Amino acid sequence: MIIKKQWRILTVGDGDLSFSNALLNHQPAALTATVYDSLATMIDKYGDLFYQQLKMKNTPVLFEFDVCNANSWTGLAKNSFDVVIFQFPLLPAFGSFSEYQNRCANININTLNRRLLRDFLINSFNHFLDPNGQQLCFITSKDVKPYRQWNIENSLNLQTDINYLGSIPFALKMFPGYKIRNVDRDKHVKDTKGVTYVWSRQQNHAISGRLTAAQFQGADYCTACRAGPFSTDVDRIEHNHSKKHLQMMALERLWATDIRDNPQQFNQN
Ligand SMILES: C[S@@+](CC[C@H](N)C(=O)[O-])C[C@H]1O[C@@H](n2cnc3c(N)ncnc32)[C@H](O)[C@@H]1O
After folding, report:
1. Which residue, by CA, sits nearest to atom 16 of ligand 1?
2. 238 Cβ partners below 8 Å, 6+ apart?
3. 91 C-alpha to center of ligand 1: Å?
């Protein structure tokens, strides 16, 4: 991850605040940390060790901060950050199987997770990032199922003026003390390598040169499946008939329909 001292940083969806606390080692110009849960829920899940450390370092922390819900942002100064970071985003766990059945009756969980990430990008650019600042959004995720089926590089910014700039491997050792949290258990996310994906309203950003541009692009590849290059037509046809590809295409169609049918939900200006 690229972090510069002169940046004003907002973290979204921190689990136990260990990431925000570790970020302070990079001495950013300003840091505001946010947690989706209430303070009581966070303490119940993970304790308050990192919250206490942030308090001692006078770092503002907002609880019950839902990046999709403007009513929860009241404690935050508008458009005052250079970078907004969401580490390992994932929908909050469903309270019960019946809640899962209700919420996912008419919508695929893959689409719900993509909505979360798209809302994060659009709301960050419209409400959190300073238009005269660095204009950067970072999402760190893992390139394994189910996360890779979100098609992060190609699908989240469709029909917006937000540009995908590229990615950089996430080096956990840059953040001593950071414990990557699962959504609901006091347990670390499996130690699979993370990748930080970067967006900006600027098409060419000063940090672009340090990023790897979107891969698997062009006629010889299947961009959504991150497959290829196919050396022959037979290879391509075989891929197109594979279970993996058919599943991915079904998810892409659901996502395209969701964006088409719900454009208003992404524009909470
Ligand atoms: C897999 S956990 C990762 C937690 C933490 N970022 C980390 O890296 O350890 C996913 C996090 O996303 C948060 N989250 C889910 N939906 C959110 C939303 N609408 N707004 C803010 N955070 C959200 C959850 O509360 C949870 O903490």
Report:
1. 91
2. none
3. 7
The tokens of 257 are what? 């329909």
- Please indicate whether residue 36, judged by its CB atom, sits closer than 6 Å to ligand 1: yes
Report pLDDT for 121: 97
Q: Which residue has the CA at smallest separation from atom 22 of ligand 1?
A: 13
CA angle 122–215–113, rounded 5-degree value: 35
The overall longest dimension of the chain from CA atoms, in Å, is 62
Instruction: For a ligand 1 pocket test, name from 16, 18, 36, 193 the mutation site with the most ligand atoms within 8 angstroms of its C-beta.
Output: 36
**Dihedral, 251, 256, 260, 265 alpha carbons, nearest 10:** 60
- Report in angstroms the alpha-carbon separations of 195 from 47, 135, 144, 220: 27, 19, 11, 24
pLDDT for the residue 264: 55
b/e per residue 55-73 (b: at least 16 CB within 10 A): eeeebebbbbbbbbeeebb
Reported as a single tens digit per residue, the pLDDT across 113-164 is: 999 999 999 999 999 999 999 999 999 999 888 999 999 999 999 999 999 9
Q: Give the model confidence (pLDDT) of 58-115 as tens digits.
A: 999 999 999 999 999 998 989 999 999 999 999 987 777 887 777 777 889 999 999 9
Cα(187) to centroid of ligand 1, in Å? Answer: 14
Domain boundaries, given as residue ranges, for the chain: 8-214
**Over residues 154-176, mean pLDDT:** 95
Q: What is the CATH number of domain 8-214?
A: 3.40.50.150
Confidence label for 2 from pLDDT (cuts 50, 70 and 90)? very high
